[in-house]
Task: inverse folding
């Protein structure tokens, strides 16, 4: 059996290692061949960018060589896929190599896009890209005060980030001793300050305590670069001296170019995680069109299901598990305290008071991540 | 010829029905209709509220067997 993984980010790496461990003997005996195709030989811990943007981690802390994270039985090639020929069970790479497969896992992820909002790229700071995180830290370090606006694009990865960023901005400026010179303004696209009602209910008094002004129903339309004003689709506006954005995201172009999914999101069964209409194709993480959080933890929990099912299909001919929608998110409440949210398709999250120990757990996870990517946690 | 797309956001908490609808509306063409399926009672209020704010059209809004079916049309 040939199992092909397209994408070497968090989701692809975890599930490939999961499968390689489950089928280690079969791989050694040559009965199973596992191949991964990726666009890069580096593996970035993307949640770490938030800490880079606030000067708490360095870029070297959040990157590893991809091959150092993969099980020995996985053949790894830096040669991204350009053409999917699902009807023939083949892909063609940028380098012109054709790979056939029996099982395909697509985990190409998504990326920030700025062209949907004129002026956003020229004016905003963001922790969502590597260049952006470094630049944002320099801006925050040198900022002397003024109006800081947080604006949020749709859809975006890491849904808790808008609130975390705002909490951390408050704390950062407070520690620099300039909080009284900063007007911190938060905006959010829907009717409350976070899409999860329990989180919104918890965060409102936190914002009030921190004297964070907030406005709901604010979807970015365009940024007036010259006058430093961001306009919303709803007809309102925010002035800023420093604009911090959670940018809108799209699925990868290769997905849309191959007509696998509108917007780059692949239609996926929410329980089996199979691509609609293709039993031998699995989709996970940010690549799917499922209406659930685009986060590493989603990909992590999905990878366990897919890994177990691929191994089971090889051994018994049928899948054994369904994905229940599980997501687990740490929520940084400031620079020293955190809480968490855990939920699935049925049960909403319950939010507890932030603690220092939960923050330490999150900081520890930032190091444990590499074990997680290897499929050990 | 415009089309009606179904946005199935039943039994999800994050990013939630309205956020899903906003994503779909961004990609839709003027004239497209979308039917949002939601099990969140809040959708019955916040979706029409948002549609009114941005100037799109609310075609229908009804609850059938514990699922809200909210049909909207992109008009600009």
Result:
């Amino acid at each position: 059996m040939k199992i092909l993984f397209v994408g070497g980010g968090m989701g692809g790496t975890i599930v490939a290692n999961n499968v390689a461990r489950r089928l280690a003997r079969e791989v050694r005996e040559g009965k199973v061949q596992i191949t991964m195709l990726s666009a890069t030989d580096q593996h970035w811990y993307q949640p770490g960018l938030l800490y880079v943007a606030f000067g708490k981690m360095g870029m070297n802390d959040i990157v590893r060589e991809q091959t150092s994270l993969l099980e020995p039985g996985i053949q790894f090639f830096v040669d991204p896929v350009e053409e999917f020929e699902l009807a023939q069970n083949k892909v063609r790479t940028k380098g012109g190599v054709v790979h056939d497969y029996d099982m395909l896992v697509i985990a190409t992820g998504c990326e920030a896009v700025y062209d949907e909002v004129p002026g956003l790229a020229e004016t905003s700071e963001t922790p969502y890209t590597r260049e952006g995180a470094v630049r944002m830290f320099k801006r925050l370090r040198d900022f002397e005060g003024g109006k800081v606006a947080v604006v949020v694009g749709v859809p975006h990865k890491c849904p808790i980030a808008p609130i975390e960023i705002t909490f951390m901005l408050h704390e950062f400026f407070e520690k620099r001793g300039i909080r009284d010179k900063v007007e911190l303004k938060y905006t959010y696209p829907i009717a409350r300050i976070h899409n999860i009602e329990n989180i919104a209910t918890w965060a409102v008094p936190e914002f009030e305590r921190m004297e964070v002004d907030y406005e709901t129903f604010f979807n970015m339309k365009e940024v007036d670069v010259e006058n430093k004003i961001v306009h919303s689709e709803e007809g309102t506006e925010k002035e800023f001296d420093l604009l911090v954005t959670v940018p809108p995201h799209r699925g990868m172009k290769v997905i849309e170019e191959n007509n696998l999914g509108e917007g780059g999101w692949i239609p996926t069964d929410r329980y089996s995680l199979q691509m609609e209409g293709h039993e031998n194709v699995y989709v996970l993480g940010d690549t799917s069109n499922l209406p659930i959080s685009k986060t590493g933890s989603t990909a992590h929990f999905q990878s366990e299901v897919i890994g177990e099912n691929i191994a089971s299909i090889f051994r018994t001919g049928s899948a054994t598990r369904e994905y229940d929608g599980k997501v687990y998110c740490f929520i940084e409440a400031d620079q020293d305290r955190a809480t968490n949210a855990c939920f699935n398709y049925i049960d909403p999250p319950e939010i507890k008071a932030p603690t220092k120990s939960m923050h330490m757990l999150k900081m520890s996870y930032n190091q444990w991540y590499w074990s997680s990517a290897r499929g050990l946690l | 010829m415009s089309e009606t797309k179904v946005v199935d956001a039943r039994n999800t908490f994050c990013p939630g029905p309205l956020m899903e609808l906003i994503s779909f509306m961004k990609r839709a063409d003027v004239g497209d209709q979308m039917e949002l399926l939601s099990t969140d009672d809040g959708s019955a209020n916040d979706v029409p509220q948002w549609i009114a704010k941005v100037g799109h059209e609310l075609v229908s809004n009804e609850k059938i067997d514990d699922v809200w079916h909210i049909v909207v049309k992109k008009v600009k």
